[in-house]
Design a protein that fits this description.
Bound molecules: adenosine monophosphate
Number of helices: 9
Order of helices and strands: EHEHHHEHEHEEHHEH
Radius of gyration: 16 Å
Distance between the termini: 19 Å
Number of strands: 7
Largest sheet: 5 strands, parallel
Strand order of the largest sheet: 2-3-1-4-7
Helix content: 40-55%
Strand content: 5-15%
Length: 207
């Protein structure tokens, strides 16, 4: 398996949005543990049933389940050229497990202050037909599709506060762990989608 990239940052930093572009540039498929878990929840698999209550309260799903999920996913053929991890790893235990099975070439960290995040997440909507993500103020959807947009169950203010707490306690320490390994590239995510995307693109081209 070729080297992989990690997309790192708090919930609502724009990881999913930027991941689409990074995948296009690098040819590495996006692996979002959040998306995989949501699929398991909707399909009511054993994993989904176990993960659901953690996700709905904004807590992290236990490491064992996540590590198992990733170990299976990277066995698939499309992972042979390396992958783009989005929302994984989120704990030191996950990062250590990952380092044993995958070679990481860089960690792109999108930084956004807490006070920005709640507004970003609470206004977020998804078009279930295309998977496109909108924001009621910052990226308004076309009026003709407004009726079909959905909001993630965990995109409410109370749960976002728990997700942010989990990020600060369990996930953000990973940035210094990767920085010490010389892998961390930090981007100011408190700008437009295009500006953030340009910085990431320049980094990937120089690499
Ligand atoms: P996300 O879509 O990345 O915001 O993830 C949504 C929710 O799924 C999180 O709040 C966690 O409950 C769970 N989740 C996603 N990825 C992970 C992970 N790597 N480790 C633990 N829980 C995760």
């Amino acid at each position: 398996m070729d080297a992989s990239i990690i997309l790192f940052g708090p919930p609502g930093a724009g990881k999913g949005t930027q991941a689409v572009k990074i995948s296009e540039i690098t040819g590495k498929p996006q692996i979002s543990t959040g998306d995989m878990l949501r699929k398991s929840v909707s399909e009511k698999t054993d994993l989904g049933i176990e993960a659901q209550s953690y996700m709905e309260s904004g807590l992290l799903v236990p490491d064992e389940l996540i590590i198992q999920l990733i170990a299976e996913r990277i066995k698939q053929k499309d992972a042979s050229r390396g992958v783009l991890f989005d929302g994984f790893p989120r704990t030191l235990k996950q990062a250590e497990a990952l380092s044993l099975i995958v070679n990481i070439s860089s960690v792109i960290s999108i930084e956004v202050p807490d006070e920005e995040i709640v507004g970003r997440i609470v206004g977020r909507r998804m078009d279930p037909q295309t998977g496109e993500i909108y924001h009621i103020d910052f990226k308004p959807p076309p009026t003709e599709i407004e009726y079909r947009l959905v909001q993630r169950k965990d995109d409410n203010e109370e749960t976002v506060r728990n997700r942010l707490a989990a990020y600060h306690q369990q996930t953000s320490p990973l940035s210094s762990w990767y920085s010490e390994k010389g892998l961390l590239f930090t981007v100011d995510g408190n700008r437009t989608i295009d500006e953030v995307g340009k910085d990431i693109e320049n980094f990937l081209i120089q690499k």
